[in-house]
């Protein structure tokens, strides 16, 4: 037992010596690593110095090379703006192209619905008046629709009846008129011979005889067109009934399809667009009626046959701005020429021109007013574009579409400015009163008063319930 403490002491001394040796080896390894790192850094700096000494410096006359700029900064500002506008215009053009393809695919439905809107704008004031008299909405709608459709049908029947009743008399007068025109050409200073007139008549007859198949196919195509027209009339009648009866809920449903941020602006633009359309239809009907009455009276006094059907045609063609007046007036002059002679045709031309000048310079500005005033260039271009896209129907709806679009765009622009001013921070400081935006009271009319969202188009004429 006496030897155990001595053995433990020697073991502790040996362990202490082993720890000391390990610490010395660790310190020696750290010194060796530091030396290697210093040597590597020294060698790299030496190599770079040698490489720099070996690469010759550029001569003094060599041009300096600037760093390459950012590609976006290298493009001129005007080109960048043009590119940004260009791709947006391409997207807009593609959207319009797709929309036009869709419209052309369902052209009959679109034209029938637009015609229903025009008829509704013409008949809705009658519904409002009947409801003010105490009739229920359904009964007022039914009475107005039945009366309107009956009147339109009677007008069409009257035109067809007059044409069929005077067809034989007209054919005889046309033959007499052609003979008189032939005599006038022979006695005129144009040196037209009878053989030339006979050659023209023979060529016309031969052309009709050789193109019999084309004329027959055109007749069959005309039958197809008549079927489509009847289908469109039925669609327009049903659409008119629902628009007259349930226009408010249809408008509220349309507003739900608009994003919530844009809904207040659209809700305010809708009633104004409807007022513009109603004013256009009413004014056009009044102007067309005046044209038909006065031109019809003029050609009736001149003893032109079928004066009443020609007056009805003048009334119908007046719904095509500019172009319709020219076509209907030319038709009346041609009938007067082939039936009554050159003098009567000239007098009919004077009557047509006088009435149309009064219409263009007095009636339209006074009746239509500033609400639907469209520049004549816009009228011509819109009628031409509508006729190219959808024929006669497109020419009829082109101008009211442009007028409504003008009203909507103008209101949304004003609404956007008013909203921006309302949400802009108020000015501060001593000059706050002088720079604060204040609306001019004189520039705001009664029609610009704010309306509740979801108002029914045309509901301003209806008394509250």
TrEMBL record:
Source domain of life: Bacteria
What parts of the sequence cross the membrane?
Answer: 139-160, 223-245, 279-301, 307-327, 334-358, 378-404
Query: What does the UniProt keyword field contain?
Result: Cell membrane, Membrane, Transmembrane, Transmembrane helix, Transport
Topology with regard to the membrane? Multi-pass membrane protein
The region called Disordered is annotated at 26-52, 421-465
Concerning InterPro entries, the annotation shows:
AI-2E-like
Provide the protein's localization.
Answer: Cell membrane
Q: Short name of one Pfam family for this protein?
A: AI-2E_transport
Amino acid composition bias (Low complexity), ranges on this chain: 40-52, 451-465
What family is reported?
Belongs to the autoinducer-2 exporter (AI-2E) (TC 2.A.86) family.
The entry's protein name is PurR-regulated permease PerM
Native species: Streptomyces clavifer
